[in-house]
UniProtKB/TrEMBL annotation:
Residues 88-186 form the HTH araC/xylS-type domain. This is DNA-3-methyladenine glycosylase II. One of its GO terms (biological process) is base-excision repair, AP site formation. Its EC number is 3.2.2.21. It comes from Thalassospira lohafexi. Gene3D superfamilies: DNA Methylphosphotriester Repair Domain, DNA-3-methyladenine glycosylase AlkA, N-terminal domain, Helix-hairpin-Helix base-excision DNA repair enzymes (C-terminal), Homeodomain-like, Hypothetical protein, domain 2. It comes from the Bacteria. GO terms for cellular component: cytoplasm; protein-DNA complex. InterPro entries: Ada-like_dom_sf, Ada_DNA_repair_Zn-bd, AlkA_N, AlkA_N_sf, Alkylbase_DNA_Glycosylase/TA, DNA_glycosylase, HhH-GPD_domain, HhH_base_excis_C.
Length: 496
C-alpha cells in the first residue's frame, strides 16, 4: 500500500475505505471535531480538513473526538504505535501508566535513551509529545471503557488514571462536551448470538465485559483453528466461536472468555475473578494475542505478485499471526514443541499445568474445561521435570529457560535481550528462537525457515524444500516474513 499523503487520505475519506481505518484521522476545521475515515457523516470539503496520524495527535491540536465514529474504538494505528522500535516500546509503557506516576526522564532511562532524544523521535513518529500522548490516551481509554465495557463510572475514572471522579467528569466534559453518563443513555449490551443462558460461556450478570474491534479484514476462523489445535489441557478451551483461558496478572487470577461474533468484527471479552480489574492490560494482551491491529492489506500488498504466497492470500485475505498471552508461557511452549508433534507438545504442557499451575475456583470455571493457570517461573525453579515425559537434555533446557525468566530483572529486558539470552541456552536453536520471536515478541519479520510445515507448504506451492534456500527466498518478503510464515502454514489445512 502506498505511503499516506493528504491526497490519498482525502480519497480514502470520500470512499470511506475501511482499509484506512486507524491509519489516519480527519480533523474538520469548521467544527473542531476529528473523525475516523469510515465516519458516516457528510464528507467535508477538502479545504476544511487536516489529517493526523493518530487520535492523540488530533486531540493535542485541540480537536474533539467524533461521537458517531468513535476514534477511541479504531484499530491501533501504525503511526500511534510507532514504526521506530523505541517509540513502540514507549507507547506501550505509557499506555501501561508509566507517566501517571513517573517522568519522561524515567521513561527514557527505562528505554535506554536520553530524554531529549525520546521527545524528538516520539513526536516525529506520533505527531505529539509523550505527555500529550499520555493525556489523550487517558481520555480515549475512558471513553472506550464507558461505551465498550460495563464498568461503573467510578471504576472507569480509577482505571483510566484520573485519580478522582470529579477530575474524570471535568476532563470528559471539556474533551467531549458531554458528561460521561450521557454516552451510556439508551445503550443496551448486545446479546451473545448463538449462546444459550445455560452455556458456560454465557455472560453472567456480574461479569466484566469488554468489546474490542479488529482492523478489517479479520479471519477469526483461522485464529480459532490455530489455538484449538494447540490448546493446553486445563489452561485453555476453544469452541466454535470462543476461546477460554485461565490467567494471572499482578498476583491475581481470573478467567477470560473471548467470544467472536459471526461478522468477524472483533472480539467480546468476558472477565471473571479478582484479576479482571486489570481490564486495560487485559485488553492490550488480547489485542496482541489475536493480532487485532494488523494492517493486513498493507502487509499483503507486498506479496500480491508472489507466486508462492498470492494464492494463499486470495484464500484467506484476513489472516493474522497468533500472538501469546505471556512470554514465559510461550517460551516453554516453544521448547516443549521442539522436534515433536503439536499434539505431543500439548500433552507435555498440559502435564506441566496440571502438576504445577494454581487451580482456579470452581465458581469461575464451571463446565468451561479450564481448571488452572499457567505456573509462574518461580514455582518451577529447581524442579526435576523429567517426570512430565521429557528427556534429561530437554528437561535441562526447560530448566534453563525457567531460570532466565525467574530473574528479577527479566520483565525489564527488551526483546533483543531475551533472544540473546535464549540463544546462549543449550538446546535452543534457530527454530525455537524464530518461533518465540514470531509469537512471543510479535516480531513481524521472524521466519522459522527450518520448520517442517513451512518447508512442506513451500514445496507444495513450487518453492524451495530446503531451509537455506527458503531463507534466501524469504528476503523478498521482508519486513513481513512472520505473515508469510503464517500463510505458508495455512496451506497445510486438511493435510494429514
Amino acid at each position: 500500500m502506498e505511503q499516506l499523503n493528504n491526497d490519498i487520505c482525502y480519497q480514502a475519506l470520500k470512499t470511506r475505505d475501511r482499509r484506512f481505518d486507524g491509519r489516519f484521522y480527519t480533523a474538520v476545521l469548521t467544527t473542531g471535531i476529528f473523525c475516523r475515515p469510515i465516519c458516516p457523516a457528510v464528507t467535508p470539503k477538502r479545504v476544511n480538513v487536516e489529517f493526523y496520524p493518530s487520535a492523540e495527535s488530533a486531540i493535542a491540536h485541540g480537536f474533539r473526538p467524533c461521537l458517531r465514529c468513535r476514534p477511541e474504538a479504531a484499530p491501533g494505528s501504525p503511526a500511534s504505535a510507532g514504526v521506530h522500535a523505541t517509540v513502540a516500546r514507549a507507547v506501550r509503557l505509557i499506555d501501561q501508566g508509566m507517566l501517571e506516576t513517573g517522568s519522561i526522564a524515567g521513561l527514557a532511562d527505562r528505554l535506554g535513551v536520553g530524554d531529549r532524544h525520546l521527545r524528538r523521535i516520539f513526536k516525529e513518529h506520533t505527531g505529539v509529545t509523550p505527555q500529550d500522548h499520555a493525556k489523550a490516551r487517558r481520555l480515549l481509554r475512558a471513553r472506550q471503557l464507558i461505551v465498550d465495557s460495563n464498568l461503573s463510572m467510578t471504576d472507569i475514572a480509577d482505571i483510566a488514571g484520573f485519580g478522582s471522579l470529579r477530575r474524570f467528569n471535568d476532563a470528559m466534559k471539556k474533551a467531549y462536551g458531554q458528561a460521561p453518563t450521557a454516552f451510556r443513555r439508551g445503550m443496551k449490551s448486545p446479546p451473545l448470538a448463538g449462546i444459550k443462558k445455560d452455556d458456560p460461556c454465557a455472560r453472567r450478570d456480574d461479569d466484566l465485559v469488554l468489546r474490542l474491534r479488529a482492523r478489517q479484514p479479520f479471519d477469526a476462523n483461522y485464529l480459532l483453528a490455530f489455538f484449538r489445535a494447540r490448546a493446553i489441557p486445563g489452561l485453555e478451551s476453544v469452541g466454535d466461536r470462543t476461546y477460554v483461558r485461565g490467567f494471572r496478572i499482578g498476583g491475581l487470577i481470573g478467567l477470560m472468555i473471548c467470544r467472536f461474533p459471526n461478522d468477524n468484527s472483533g472480539v467480546e471479552v468476558i472477565l471473571r475473578g479478582p484479576a479482571r480489574g486489570a481490564v486495560l492490560e487485559i485488553g492490550s494482551r488480547v489485542r496482541r494475542l489475536f493480532d487485532l491491529d494488523a494492517d493486513v492489506p498493507s502487509i499483503t500488498a507486498q506479496f500480491a505478485n508472489d507466486p508462492l504466497l498470492a494464492p494463499l492470500i486470495d484464500k484467506r485475505p484476513g489472516l493474522r499471526v497468533p500472538g501469546c498471552w505471556d512470554q514465559f508461557e510461550l517460551a516453554i511452549r516453544a521448547v516443549l514443541g521442539q522436534q515433536v508433534s503439536v499434539a505431543a507438545a500439548r500433552t507435555l504442557a498440559g502435564r506441566l499445568v496440571q502438576g504445577y499451575g494454581d487451580a482456579l475456583p470452581d465458581d469461575l470455571t464451571e463446565n468451561t474445561g479450564v481448571t488452572h493457570v499457567f505456573p509462574q517461573p518461580e514455582t518451577l525453579l529447581g524442579l526435576d521435570l523429567i517426570g512430565i515425559g521429557l528427556t534429561r537434555r530437554r528437561a535441562q533446557t526447560v530448566s534453563d529457560v525457567i531460570d532466565m525468566f525467574a530473574a528479577p530483572d527479566c520483565e525489564q529486558k527488551s526483546g533483543d535481550a531475551l533472544i540473546t539470552e535464549m540463544t546462549a541456552i543449550k538446546g535452543i536453536g534457530p527454530w525455537t528462537l524464530n518461533y518465540f520471536g514470531l509469537r512471543g515478541l510479535g516480531d513481524p519479520d521472524a521466519f522459522p525457515a527450518a520448520d517442517l510445515g513451512i518447508l512442506k507448504a513451500s514445496a507444495m506451492g513450487g518453492g524451495p524444500d530446503k531451509a537455506k534456500a527458503l531463507e534466501t527466498l524469504s528476503e523478498r518478503w521482508r519486513p513481513w516474513r512472520a505473515y508469510a510464515a503464517q500463510y505458508l502454514w495455512s496451506a497445510l489445512e486438511g493435510e494429514g
